[in-house]
Design a protein that fits this description.
This protein is of the alpha/beta class and about 425 residues long. Helix content is about 35%, strand content about 20%. The protein folds into 2 domains: about 180 residues, Flavin prenyltransferase-like (Rossmann fold, 3-Layer(aba) Sandwich), CATH 3.40.50.1950; about 210 residues, CoaB-like (Rossmann fold). The protein is built from 14 helices and 19 strands. Bound molecules: cytidine-5'-triphosphate.
Length: about 425
């Protein structure tokens, strides 16, 4: 998901009251982009920084970006009782960055500034995007505070890994603003809370298209953007799963924070990676658009156009990774794997409509769930929203109304979780 693509999610979202809390870390500058995304999507955004946050970014910047006044203390504008009203009226509170200190104060129910007072009065979804040094993130005090907050239904994102302030690297980086925005928007769309029901599960997700080389310069590929698979990986982490994302090339998407990413290019590389990582997986979700065929041979040097008509390119069949995973599971090679999910992008034709083709595909592939998208006319590929159905092997068919790919991912995981807990 790129910043420009997410800034407005496929048309105007209903205007909601969004509070962006900012605590005092160097990553506070990234909150500016986050405020902008919510404001550009048409929401009424109030920024509540802590006093320390204002050491990094001035109130004037947040006022200009949100179009609303900025206060930090409970003794400003007391006649409006903002320390109670802002939280009560909010549809979503996002705190980014959430420092170790802010998480500790929130976990202990402190109300010593406007942000923590707001967190106590809010009854809407609350999302924390932590940012701190690795030692602070991994300290048992912080782990306990995060567990306390998650136990109350609050979403605390996994921090990203990478370069921190200074020379050190490790988990503790603030997730990218577009990722936080995508998750926050999903919470606004999804009326019910996001459960942490995948804790202790391992989920393998494939995403994106594959590239089948013809020569050192050219390949056969497809239009898959990887957005739906990335969204599934992102949401599975937020629900507590350990997630491995097997990603096709060049999606240009932000890596979901807290996810192990394995990059592959061809269908065969994807097959090998899925085999390797699904050994102990509880759930395998094949969202990738895998090429069914590849050129029978790859030229060592660039194929020249020559003077005459072009040669035909002979193709050979690639393995069906999804069908193979089902087969391996059914043979007992994947003892932990309980739910396998396939995807189908379909158009209707003279042989039947989208659902007719999808039902046949579900039977053919043998997986527990099949996510079906109707494609064509701008639907499904390269856009941020999606709609479709989830079909189960048992015969249930659930419509997935139009919504963001993050919302769709959360609904897919609802269905996965229901099967995991069905016994
Ligand atoms: N898939 C796979 N390996 C392949 C092709 C597809 O694992 N070589 C998976 C995809 O990841 C997806 C599902 O199979 O989850 C459906 O893919 P699709 O291409 O629609 O299925 P096909 O069997 O190729 O059917 P069609 O005849 O419609 O192309």
């Amino acid at each position: 998901m790129s910043a420009t693509e997410t800034a407005v999610v496929d048309g105007a979202a209903p205007r909601k009251r969004v509070i962006v809390g900012v605590s005092g870390g160097i990553a506070a500058y990234k909150a500016c982009a986050l405020v902008r995304y919510f404001a550009e999507a048409g929401h009424d955004v109030r920024v509540i920084p802590t006093n320390s946050a204002l050491e990094f970014i001035g109130a004037a910047t947040f006022e200009a970006l949100s179009g609303n006044p900025v206060h930090t203390g409970v003794f400003e504008n007391v006649h409006e009782v903002p320390h109670v009203r802002l939280g009560q009226e909010a549809d979503l509170v996002v705190v980014a960055p959430a420092t170790a200190d802010l998480l500790a104060r929130a976990a202990h129910g402190r109300a010593d500034d406007l942000l923590t007072a707001t967190l106590l009065t809010a009854r809407c979804p609350v999302l924390f995007a932590p940012a701190m040094h690795t030692e602070m993130w991994e300290h048992p005090a912080t782990s306990d505070n995060v567990a306390t907050l998650r136990g109350r239904g609050v979403i605390v994102m996994e921090p990203a890994s990478g370069r921190l302030t200074g020379e050190d690297t490790g988990p503790g980086r603030l997730p990218e603003a577009d990722e936080i925005y995508g998750l926050g928007s999903m919470l606004l769309e999804r009326a019910d809370a996001l459960p942490r029901d995948l804790t202790g599960s391992k989920v393998v997700v494939s995403a994106g298209g594959t590239r089948e080389p013809l020569d050192p310069v050219r390949f056969l590929g497809n239009r898959s953007s990887g957005k739906q698979g990335y969204a599934v990986a992102r949401l599975a982490v937020q629900r507590g799963a350990k997630v491995t994302l097997i990603a096709g090339p060049a999606t240009g998407l932000t890596d979901p924070a807290g996810v192990e990413i394995v990059r592959v290019s061809t269908a065969e590389e994807m097959r090998i990676a899925v085999r390797k990582h699904s050994d102990d997986a509880d759930v395998v979700i094949m969202a990738a658009a895998v090429a069914d065929f590849r050129p029978a041979s790859v030229a060592e040097s660039k194929i020249k156009k020559g003077a005459g008509e072009p040669d035909m390119i002979p193709l050979v069949r690639n393995a069906d990774i999804l069908a193979e995973t089902v087969e391996r599971r059914d043979e007992g090679a994947l003892p932990a794997t309980r739910v396998i999910v396939g995807f189908a992008a379909e158009t209707g034709d003279e042989h039947g409509d989208v659902l007719t083709h999808a039902r046949a595909k579900l039977k053919r592939k043998g997986c527990e769930l099949l996510v079906v998208n109707a494609v064509g006319e701008g639907k499904a590929f390269e856009v941020d929203s999606n709609m479709g159905w989830i079909l189960s092997r048992e015969g249930s068919e659930k419509a997935l109304p139009l919504g963001s790919k993050n919302l769709m991912a959360s609904r897919i995981l609802d269905a996965v979780s229901a099967l995991l807990y069905a016994g």
